[in-house]
Write a structure and sequence with these properties.
Layout (H helix, E strand, L loop, with lengths): L20 E6 L7 E6 L5 E3 L4 H6 L7 H9 L5 E7 L6 E3 L18 H14 L5 E7 L7 H12 L6 E6 L7 H8 L3 E5 L4 H7 E3 L6 H14 L6 E6 L7 H13 L7 E4 L12 H8 L16 E4 L4 E3 L7 E4 L4 H15 L1 H4 L1 H4 L15 H4 L9 H14 L12 H4 L23
Parallel strand pairs: 4-6, 4-12, 6-7, 7-8, 8-10, 10-11
Antiparallel strand pairs: 1-2, 2-3, 5-9, 12-13, 13-14
Helix pairs in contact: 3-4, 4-5
The structure holds iron/sulfur cluster (2 copies).
């Protein structure tokens, strides 16, 4: 890919201000919309007549971009998001699996529910601003260890009674009452299915058993429908470019909607490159050039509020790079300090000189670490900065720029929908064409 031409025009003409500050309007629905300076990194707004000390305190001034970035990355959050690897066993072996080298026949280790609860309790003590827990259950195939999943839910619910739980499964299991009991506890059930039968089974292969993965997963979805759980289901497919035709996708949608999956709960995307050799698909490369608004940094760098607990109880940064930060029973402050160092030292957008001064970094953050095999440490060589700048200017002019500093959901960035237990879809894409026939 050729490097795109670079220009780094400021989003404003005020010499006092950082390039990332833009004028926009808020409270558009009120009779008196207010013109404000908006800091696209910290998501703070100030009146146009704010004085220099107010601008400095909010990191609006020229020369404060790095401070603004660090302030946003490490701001206090209200939600602690944990992903627990409940098993490294899996009943499938998928061609695009990012963790295929980690899959095991037997569990060598597993998370102790009481130690996880103790970690959550100590985390809350260290960061009292945390008011919510979100726990994602992941594998391998987590439904192969239902008992541990249930005990992790029960132990953490004793600390955060309103905790949110979700699970990502291949659905290629025969549903039993123990599975249903667990799935009823989930807010979201993400099911990975990669298209209609032939396409799915080209990528998803049964392991050490003879069954048809597509038919097994569809039977699973039918069962969820008959037990009133289908509204919790979100289907995500990682679709190879050559299969991503209107006809194939229409078949896929039709089959899913026939078993009750909602249209707006079906997501699919391109396959991203994996360390085990999966090459980047053209659609993945193209997705890097789309001016997609990312509302926060990749989960790997999000201030230590988003962590993976591996089956051996190590605390790791994310599902792609697996950088170990410590152990579950380490002091929380030590883990957070290691996370802080890791983020500052390794986040590509903080070291790429074009990103560091990019006026729209607050709506990009250098993208997701799942692109690292392709972009390495230089995300700016693969992006379309000019298009993103144009989009942000347009949205600011019409007053539609998202201003929320901590979106309640990061699904548009990197929720369970894109962090497949497989080689995740990089982005949700709309159905080619517009309507299902
Ligand atoms: S990758 Fe993102 S942050 Fe970096 S230059 Fe491109 S648009 Fe800006
Ligand atoms: S992608 Fe998921 S279902 Fe497929 S082998 Fe990997 S862990 Fe198992």
């Amino acid at each position: 890919m050729t490097r795109l031409p670079r220009s780094t025009p400021a989003l404003n003409h005020d010499e006092r201000l950082g390039a990332y500050v833009i004028e926009t309007s808020r409270n558009l629905s009120s009779p008196h919309p207010e013109k404000v300076w908006f800091n696209t990194i910290t998501r703070q707004a100030l009146p146009l007549d704010a004085d220099r000390s107010e601008l400095r305190a909010g990191f609006f001034l020229d020369g404060q971009q790095h401070e603004a970035l660090l302030s946003r990355l490490f701001e206090a959050r209200e939600t602690l998001t944990l992903t627990a690897i409940v098993t490294w066993r899996c009943n499938l072996r998928c061609t695009h699996c990012t963790v295929i080298h980690r899959l095991e026949r037997e569990d060598a280790a597993s998370i102790d529910p009481e130690r996880l609860a103790d970690f959550v309790r100590r985390y809350h003590d260290a960061r009292p601003n945390v008011k919510r827990l979100k726990l994602s259950l992941l594998g391998g195939e987590p439904l192969l260890n239902t008992d541990l999943c249930r005990r992790l839910v029960e132990s953490t619910r004793s600390i955060f009674p309103d905790a949110l739980y979700d699970i990502t499964t291949n659905g290629a299991v025969r549903l039993e009452e123990c599975h249903l009991e667990l799935l009823r506890m989930m807010q979201d059930i993400t099911v990975s299915l990669d298209g209609a039968e032939e396409l799915n089974n080209t990528q998803r292969k049964a392991h050490r058993a003879k069954f048809n993965p597509y038919q097994r997963t569809m039977a699973f979805l039918e069962e969820l429908n008959s037990h009133g759980l289908i509204d919790k289901v979100l289907v995500q497919g990682a679709i190879r470019d050559e299969y991503s035709t209107l006809e194939n996708m229409a078949d896929f949608y039709r089959a899913l909607m026939a078993v009750g999956v909602r249209y707006d709960r079906i997501h699919f995307g391109s396959i991203h490159p994996t360390k085990s050799g999966m090459k980047a698909q053209e659609s993945f490369r193209a997705s890097l050039e789309h001016p997609t608004l990312r509302h926060q940094a990749c989960c790997k760098f999000r201030g230590g509020h988003n962590l993976i607990i591996d089956a051996d109880e190590s605390v790791v940064s994310d599902y792609y790079d697996w950088e170990t930060l410590g152990a579950l029973d380490d002091p929380i402050q030590d883990l957070l300090e290691r996370h802080h160092r890791m983020a500052v030292d390794t986040m590509p957008a903080l070291s790429d000189p074009v990103c560091r001064t990019c006026p729209v970094i607050g709506y990009c953050w250098g993208g997701c670490t799942n692109a690292r095999p392709l972009v390495g440490g230089a995300p700016s060589e693969y992006c379309n900065q000019d298009a993103l700048i144009a989009k942000i200017r347009e949205m600011a002019a019409e007053g539609s720029l998202p201003m929320d500093s901590s979106p309640s959901s990061c699904a548009s960035d990197c929720g369970p929908a894109s962090r497949n237990s497989a080689a995740a879809a990089s982005k949700s894409r709309p159905l080619p064409g517009s309507q299902l026939p």
